[in-house]
Each structure stands twice: as structure tokens, then as C-alpha cells.
């Protein structure tokens, strides 16, 4: 048994969550996802003028479905134009990879979907597996697309066994602190009025200061959990690690026995401080005799402070005493959450341009003075490492009620 740390900068990597999973489940109301979906609907092709003869269901940019991941589906429709009899076309649903360029692509709501082992989100076309990994290992994933406009068009069905490539760990980290919001950019100063050939131009106004960045949120402490580990045989795999998590987190996780098995109860990382907003440019001096002086640039906003990392949790692992090889397969992580980084200082606003000299002997005004740069925020503090331990023990009662088809490999 050994201790190591499973951490990357992005929480999404730690959670092994794909963008598709996020789209379909907890973040369906967030503004970025709403914009993606709205853009697809606005530019989507309509099937009103097409006679569909066949639909084909596939996966978008994926060869399989991970047990705790997600994929975007793709539906292809072979169609003939209702008025232009010689016009045939293969239409398809929009892709996340289109980066908002959804013109001519179909909306997923043109089709009906049924699924075993998970759910399909009609807005995004994302399939997300259900949480019961043992049930999904036994049944696999079955997804069927239909075309409700025309019942004579045959449905199309996909079947996949779960893959486990995206399962990086069992257990949980404390919640990560939110990043501070960036400060607003200062507005540009108003330009001075012109004075003409015989009157001085007015000076430009001072640019507004940039807003201060928000502070990052603190990461939460890691959970207190007990994990039980054994090896099992399934209909599709001769040897897999099965981990049952109890305590602040409850879960049952299947993992690939040929890869390192990480069990975690780490503290959440502190959120980064938001960047200070840049100072606004000074307004230009008005033309005149002489020209007006440019306004001074605004001061850059201060960066926000990074949040503190959460303390590592308390992790106890009990592995199957009849399978001593588990001791070298399992790694523990109850490490502290990282400190959030300091928000950068906002840049100084540039001084405004001098007003042009006009008329006989008119001289140009002076250039405005650049503003001052803001101050960077302070980094947060890392949390303290938690406690982790592992020992062999009797786990028979923990795994006594496994479903038929899942067999514990005890000796």
C-alpha cells in the first residue's frame, strides 16, 4: 500500500467528467451551455420539407461509453426533398465540436430516444450512464433513436458494454473553491470638445479605474470515509477491483484491475483570485488653439486573493485479506487542497491622446499621463494533509449481496 497524490489543476479532470456529462446533467442551466443549445436551435435545419427514409444512430467522436463518463450521440438522416425529387441529402445532428457553427445541422428534438443504463438529454443529445455501475456492467448500454414524424422509418439501436478508461479514482475530494470574478475594465474618459481655430480645445477626461478582482473561495475539507476493496469477476471481465465507499460519501465503484487504483479523501483546492480590471484610457484632448491635454489613464484594479485549500480528509481502507496483492495495487490520497493563486493586477490605463493644434500658430496639447497599475492579490494558503491508513480485513459481509453475474474472487 502506498500514498500518492492525484491532483491536476482542473477539478473536471479530477472528477473525470467530460464536457458532455456536464452538459447533460448538473450544469444544464448554466449560461455557457444555454448559449450552446440556443445557437444550435437557432441555426438548426428543419425536416419539414424532407422525406426521411432511414435514420442511423452513432456516437459523436467516441468509440465507446465509459461507465462514469458521457458521450454525445449523433443521428444521421437519409432524406429526399419533398418538392425537388432529385435532391437527396444525408443530414445529421449538431456536434459540440462545431463551436457554435450549427447551420444546416439537425436539432436532437427531431428524434425520440429510449435508453437502458442511462439517460439521454434531448437538448444536447448527451447520453449519461446511470450511477449503478454493477447493473450497467451486467446489462450494458442500449440506446434507440426513432423518428416520430414518420413511424414507418425503422428505429436505430446501439449496444455497448461499459468501458472503464475514465475511472481514475474512488472516493471524493472536498468541494473546490470558486474562482473570483474578474474586475470590470474601466471606461474610457470622454474626449474634450474642440475649440476651433481661435479657442483652446478642452482637456480629455480621466479614464475610470478598473474594478478589483473578487477573492477565490476556500476549498472544503476532504471527507471522512471508509473504503472496502476486493476483486470480482463479471460477465465481461475476469478481474476487476470493486470498491465500496461509506461515510461522508457513499458509492460503489468498479475499476480496471490492470491500472493503478486510487482511493481519495483529499481537501478541495482554493479558488484562484480574479484578475483586476484594466484601467480605462484617458479621453483625447479636443482640437483647438492650442489643443487640449489628453486625460490621464485610470488605475488598474487590484487582483483578488486566492482561496485557502481545504484540509485533507480521513481515509481508512480495508482490503480483502484473502487477496494480499491488493496491498500493492491500491494508492491512497488524503492530501491537502492547494492554495488558490493570486489574481493578477489590472493594467494601467493609457493616457489620452493630445488634442491637435488648429489655426494660425496653434500647438498640439499634451499627451495624458498613464494611470498606475493595480496590485496583485495574495495567494491563498494550502490546507493540511489529512490521515490515511490501510489494512487487510474480512470484507465478506460488505460484499455478501452482489448481484448474480458478479462473483467475488476470494481465496
Task: Considering the chains and any ligands shown, give keywords for the structure.
single chain, 411 residues, mainly beta, 2 domains, five-stranded antiparallel beta sheet, 5 helices, 8% helix
In short:
Helices cover 8% and strands 26% of the residues. The chain is built from 5 helices and 20 strands.
Question: Can you tell me about this structure?
Answer:
- Mean pLDDT is 89; it is low at 8-19 and 21-30.
- The strands form 5 sheets. Strands 13, 14, 15, 17, 19 and 20 form a 6-stranded mixed beta sheet that branches. Strands 2, 4, 5, 7 and 8 form a 5-stranded antiparallel beta sheet that branches.
- This protein has 2 domains: 16-163, no CATH class; 168-411, no CATH class.
- It starts with a strand and ends with a strand.
- The relative contact order is 0.16.
- It has helices at 11-14, 19-24, 31-43, 133-139, 326-329, and strands spanning 2-3, 50-60, 65-66, 71-81, 88-92, 112-116, 118-121, 126-129, 141-146, 156-160, 162-163, 170-171, 224-233, 240-247, 251-256, 261-264, 314-320, 330-333, 387-393, 407-408.
- It is built from 5 helices and 20 strands.
- With 411 residues, it is mainly β.
Shape field? flat
Radius of gyration equals 30 Å
- Percentage of residues in helical conformation: under 10%
Count of all domains = 2
The beta-strand count equals: 20
For the biggest sheet, the summary is: 6 strands, mixed
Distance between the termini: 20 Å
Task: Give the H and E element order.
Answer: EHHHEEEEEEEHEEEEEEEEEHEEE
| Rounded mean pLDDT score | 89
Count up the helices.
Answer: 5
Derived from helix and strand composition plus strand pairing, the structural class reads mainly beta
Outline the low-pLDDT stretches. Answer: 8-19, 21-30
Portion in beta strands: 25-35%
